[in-house]
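Exercise 7b. C-alpha cells:
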C-alpha cells in the first residue's frame, strides 16, 4: 500500500508515479491526520511512504501518525521522500521508526522536486517547476521498479553535515519556525474556505468570512499556495513570490 502526505502535491505526484508501476492506488494520509484516525491499516504488499522533507527529516505529523497506526500484513516498508535539495539523515530516522514498530526498513529514495516553502525560499515559476519535475522522474520510476521487484533501495548519498541538519537544525526549526502567527488574508480574500478545507491539521477556520489560524501548524504551505486568488501572505516573506502547486496534480 502506498501512503502519501502532501501539502502542495509533490509527494502525491511521486506516489502516483510509483502506483502506476506497482499497480496500486495511493492513499492520502491528510484526512486521516486531520481527523486523528489511527485505525489499523492492512496491506499484503510492501508499505510505501511518500512524504516531503521538513528540515531534513520526515514531517513530525507524518512520523507520529505512522507510529500511532497499526500496520498489518506486510512487514516491509519503503520510503520515497521529496525535497528541495537534500534529505540529510532522514533515512536514519525512518529506519528508527520502522524498528520501533517491528517493521523492516527496505530503504529510502529521495526525489528533488520544486521548492514550495515560500515562508523562507522562492518557488519556481511553472516552466522551471516542470523542468525540475522532469529531472526527478527517472529516480522516482527507478525506485518504483525496485519496489515492484521487492529489492532494497540503494543508500542515499549524504553530505558531511547530514547528522547535524537532521538533529540540531531540525529541533531548532520546529522550536522557532513552525508557527502560524504570520499568516494572514488580504482584502483579496473571497471567503471560499479552501484554505480551511486543505489544512491537514484543521488549523484554519473562517470567522466573518475570513480565515483565522488557530495556533497548530506544520507549515506545509497548502493554505498559502493553494489559495485561488493568492490572498494569503506569510508576513512580508511571501510578498511577490510565486505560489507553487505541482502542475501535474
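Sequence design result:
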Amino acid at each position: 500500500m502506498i501512503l502519501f502526505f502532501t501539502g502542495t502535491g509533490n509527494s502525491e505526484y511521486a506516489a502516483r508515479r510509483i502506483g502506476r508501476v506497482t499497480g496500486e492506488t495511493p492513499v492520502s494520509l491528510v484526512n486521516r491526520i486531520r481527523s486523528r484516525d489511527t485505525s489499523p491499516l492492512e496491506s499484503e504488499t510492501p508499505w510505501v511512504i511518500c512524504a516531503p522533507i521538513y528540515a531534513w527529516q520526515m514531517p513530525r505529523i507524518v512520523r507520529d501518525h505512522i507510529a500511532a497506526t497499526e500496520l498489518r500484513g506486510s512487514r516491509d516498508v519503503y520510503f520515497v521522500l521529496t525535497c528541495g535539495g537534500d534529505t540529510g539523515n532522514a533515512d536514519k530516522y525512518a529506519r528508527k521508526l520502522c524498528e520501533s514498530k517491528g517493521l523492516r526498513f527496505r530503504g529510502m529514495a529521495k526525489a528533488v522536486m520544486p521548492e514550495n516553502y515560500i515562508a523562507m525560499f522562492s518557488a519556481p515559476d511553472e516552466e522551471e517547476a516542470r523542468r525540475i519535475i522532469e529531472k526527478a522522474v527517472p529516480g522516482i520510476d527507478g525506485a518504483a521498479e525496485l519496489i515492484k521487484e521487492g529489492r532494497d533501495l540503494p543508500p542515499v548519498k549524504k553530505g558531511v553535515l547530514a547528522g547535524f541538519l537532521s538533529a540540531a537544525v531540525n529541533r531548532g526549526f520546529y522550536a522557532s519556525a513552525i508557527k502560524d502567527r504570520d499568516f494572514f488574508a488580504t482584502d483579496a480574500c473571497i471567503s471560499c474556505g479552501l484554505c480551511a478545507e486543505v489544512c491537514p491539521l484543521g488549523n484554519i477556520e473562517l470567522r466573518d468570512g475570513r480565515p483565522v489560524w488557530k495556533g497548530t501548524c506544520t507549515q506545509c504551505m497548502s493554505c498559502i499556495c493553494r489559495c485561488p486568488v493568492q490572498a494569503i501572505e506569510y508576513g512580508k516573506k511571501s510578498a511577490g513570490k510565486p505560489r507553487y502547486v505541482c502542475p501535474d496534480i
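Instructor comment: Residues 183-234 form a domain with the Alpha-Beta Plaits fold (CATH 3.30.70.20). Helices lie at 10-22, 30-34, 60-68, 90-100, 126-149, 162-176, 194-198, 222-226.
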